[in-house]
Design a protein that fits this description.
Number of helices: 1
Distance between the termini: 37 Å
Radius of gyration: 13 Å
Mean pLDDT: 89
Largest sheet: 3 strands, mixed
Shape: globular
Number of strands: 3
Order of helices and strands: EEHE
Strand content: 35-45%
């Protein structure tokens, strides 16, 4: 099932390897600011993205064990 949510620009998959085993990771890039201190931060948009990601993880737990959200927007406060 494809992941869809507003403000998502790219979804990629990777495997993280650690001493305790491996994790399948879905990385979601967004055009939204994720820094809560940034003036353009939209709490509702960030919360929706997190909810959508959690729903995806619940429905695809056999494939993905971690989700990473990454903003492709620059800028600090």
């Amino acid at each position: 099932m494809a992941f869809k949510s507003p403000h998502v620009s790219l979804v990629s998959f990777s495997i993280e390897i650690g001493k305790d085993g491996t994790s399948n990771v879905m990385q979601i890039e967004t055009d939204s600011h994720l820094n809560t201190r940034h003036p353009s931060y939209d709490a509702a948009a960030a919360e929706r993205l997190v909810r959508d990601a959690q729903s995806y993880l619940a429905g695809n737990a056999g494939q993905v064990t971690r989700i990473r959200l990454v903003s492709n927007r620059g800028g600090q406060t």
